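Ops channel
N.P.: pipeline sanity check, posting one input/output pair.
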């Protein structure tokens, strides 16, 4: 199944619990901007060639990350992290706008690399260590 980036407004509406086609006017425009911004951040975590490919056919996890970031932006554009209704109190955060969490960045990079972890490779051992370490003598330090 081919999933293009940016995700559709309908996909965001489903995540928001709004009937498909329920966003209109300014709300729809705000949703489209949030999706475009989230997609820009996701594609910035990969190579230009991979970004071009993902514009037509992206892995499901990448689309999910873009939808989650767009939803955060749509639900809370001002970045409010505290709200009291009584005699009114609002706490604003430095993280207003679209952002990716560290976990989301890792998921996008993992999808781009095709690896399940970030630590894959070989370790070359110097020829001097093939025989094993020199015996340790208390009070002497190996060179």
């Amino acid at each position: 199944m081919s999933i293009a980036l940016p995700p559709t407004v309908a996909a965001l509406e489903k995540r928001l619990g709004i009937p498909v086609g329920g966003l209109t006017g300014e709300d729809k425009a705000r949703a489209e901007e949030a999706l475009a911004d989230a997609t820009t951040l996701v594609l910035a975590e990969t190579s230009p060639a991979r970004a071009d490919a993902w514009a037509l056919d992206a892995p499901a996890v990448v689309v999910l990350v873009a939808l989650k970031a767009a939803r955060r932006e749509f639900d809370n554009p001002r970045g409010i992290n505290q709200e009291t209704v009584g005699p009114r109190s609002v706490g604003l955060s430095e993280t207003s706008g679209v952002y990716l969490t560290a976990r989301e960045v890792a998921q996008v990079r993992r999808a781009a690399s095709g690896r399940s972890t970030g630590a894959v490779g070989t370790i070359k051992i110097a020829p001097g260590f093939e025989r094993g370490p020199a015996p340790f003598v208390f009070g002497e330090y190996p060179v």
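N.P.: looks fine end to end. The first strand starts at residue 80 and ends at 84.
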